[in-house]
């Protein structure tokens, strides 16, 4: 491996095996990862905080784990590393130095990975694109004029560009699966309670942490390392009978798979995304599975409204936390959009929030009934291929209306409701119409994954989503491994990888 030019051909477990068998050293892997970051990052803006010195120091005391020596990147959202800025994609947090590692970061470290940077994310992880004012937009390695998705867009871009084979992410409405789909990666959102919570029952358990990866086995192996409740966990789930890595080698039964291309909120689904589902349905049938078209019976408007209620309410709570931690002055450094979303949260009543949570439960009941007949639900991960950077930004008029609303404050309830209808719902639907398939699993707590099974005529990856019953990551991993073997994707790389050759 002279010069480590073959680095990009390995997944994380493959690199760890090279270290374990002394074919390379952890220092050599880190040097190569840094070299690639320095070449590629100026073009895609995936990494917002380089921790090269910290990683060099860590080489002397990396623990013995399944990923020992593998270079790794953390999504810069609630991923506290002692003494390292956790910006949460915001200027408001840009000087915050956590006093200790978070539980999740401790578990990542215990796997043996060597953390050498943090990746870009929208402010507070609120968007399905990654374009924070604090750090600028992350660009898609497959076409740098397009978005990498969000909110784990920095991690996705870094993995797709082969800076690292896997990187951390979080998923509160699709934030692992959306960027995985846009960047041609494997991304699995675990069941509610499977991994340690961050931020204190963040988004009422809708948000879950895991990684985006080149290979299925890396995802399975890392979930083995980080799964299990943390101290004071609000949700505790039964652990798997076998490790997720071990089940990849076990037989998969014939599955009953329903598929739909109908967007839950009634929006348009791009023809290429429909073709991707049709292609995947044929592939699954060839593999011996029973596949049929069937749309789950739940109310899409109920799903949208209950999701937005949680989204607004937790944004308001996040600003309360910011004030407690850094003082009221820090709020002035937030983006207008974040402050406006928080204002919408302040306009909601307690009964609004309780009703929304009851709707979550009603939708979960519908999905439980659905899974009595079907093992999995298959959809496009997104309703369209990745869009242009900046195309989902608010217009100048909308920004002005937003600032006026924020200046007016929550006391003007009538204005708040009008703005909610005129701006927020319009802007939220405009964004969610691009990604309407992912929020379901966040509200119900089900595990879901995006698998890179299709590329458009423009050579853009289009992900396919599979949703399983609560607690059944095992079936998802087994199917993903079968699909990876039947239609390998790791050899597909964006041209930008060639800059590092």
From TrEMBL:
Belongs to the amidase family. It holds the Pfam family Amidase. It comes from Thalassomonas viridans. Transmembrane segments: none annotated. Signal peptide: none annotated. InterPro entries: Amidase (IPR000120), Amidase_CS (IPR020556), Amidase_dom (IPR023631), AS_sf (IPR036928). The lineage of its organism: Bacteria, Pseudomonadati, Pseudomonadota, Gammaproteobacteria, Alteromonadales. One of its GO terms (molecular function) is catalytic activity. Residues 28-476 form the Amidase domain. This is Amidase.
